[in-house]
Amino acid sequence: MLRSFLPFSLALLLACSCSSPTSEDSTGLDKESRRLDSLTALLREDPENVKTLVARADYYMSVKNFPYAKMDAQSAFTIDSSDHDALRVLGDAHYVSNETRISRDAWTRCAKLYPKEVECRLKLAELYQVVMEYAKSIELADEVIALDPNNPTSYFLKGISIRDDKLDTNMALSYIQKAIDLDPKYEEALDMAGVMHSAMGSSLAISYFQRLAELRPNDFNVYYKVGMFHLKTRNWNSAIEAFTQATQLNPKDAESLYNLGFIHLELQMYGEARQFFTQSIEARAVNYRAHYARAFVVERLGDIQAAEADYLKALEYNPSHAPSKEGLGRVRSALASFKN
């Protein structure tokens, strides 16, 4: 997503904590409560103040109270359908609910009324990229580049649309790199450059992920991506190091645990592989791949009954998984021969 233009994605992950709020947390909550109270008091005195309605809509967006954000945004738009920020927040409030038609119309009107402004154009460019109307997204990105040649987001969006529309990875990377040149701390661009270079098998991916890790030192996903690059190149030691870092940051990272199991299976370290597959299952119970992999390992270790149980569990979660069907057939044949 855009860093400052579309701060809320179509699917939002809400984090929660079971610990008691600290005094610092309480202070922050009190501050936010006072901010809302202040905006509400202003609106009691002047209920048709568009600027205040927009400010309260933005507040509701920031605390993920989207229904209230929509109401204030709609009120602001009804009072002044030509106000830049009313149009902007109206689009924002409906975008998070996947009501992209309303967002499109609001941001299109905003762009037409304010031909020298880039914000609504960038929002439209991303919207069109998301709904796969890449030509329109590129056109809007070019408009922003013409208005502001040093805007990194416009180059990033153009690069993404070129990647998806024209399947031209090299050209796409040139625009994404331009975005990084303009903003060396552009996290989304660094991430995408790393992912694209990784897909190409280029070791340049590691340098982008390393720079991203400096900006996101506690993001386990960065280390997971580093691990995946090394996994593809069968650089086992580096892959183990990266996946281990990911699981240290997130002990419930089922994919990194699975990959650690896979690597140890490849190294014929069956005991360690079994342990990692078990941890992957504990991290995510509905996990047919880990059940299949653990079944494969314990079958090699001679624990046929445990293998049968895991093959059955894998098929419970994915009835069409052919390798699990084959494995189940093998172990049942083995069990039948023991009985005979």
General shape: elongated
The residue fraction in helices comes out at over 70%
What integer value in Å does the Rg equal? 26 Å
Q: How many separate helices?
A: 18
Amount of beta strand: under 5%
Q: Would you give an account of this structure?
A:
The protein starts with 22 loop residues before the first helix and ends with a helix. Mean pLDDT is 90; it is low at 1-21. With 340 residues, it is mainly alpha-helical. The chain has helices at residues 23-45, 50-62, 66-79, 84-95, 100-113, 119-130, 134-147, 152-166, 169-182, 187-199, 204-215, 220-232, 236-249, 254-266, 270-283, 288-300, 304-317, 322-339. Helix 6 runs antiparallel to helix 7 (134-147) and helix 7 runs antiparallel to helix 8 (152-166). It is elongated. Helices cover 75% and strands 0% of the residues. Among the domains are: 46-117, Alpha Horseshoe (Serine Threonine Protein Phosphatase 5, Tetratricopeptide repeat); 126-214, Tetratricopeptide repeat domain (Serine Threonine Protein Phosphatase 5, Tetratricopeptide repeat, Alpha Horseshoe), CATH 1.25.40.10.
